[in-house]
Amino acid sequence: MAFITDEDYTVLIRTEIKNILLDNYSDTKLKTAENMGIAQVKKRLAGRYDVAKIFSAEGDERDSYIVMITLDCALYHLYTATVPNKIPTIRAERYQDALDWLKSVAKGEETTDLPLLEDESGNNLLGIKIASKYQPSNNRW
Question: Is the pLDDT of residue 37 over 90?
Answer without folding.
Answer: yes
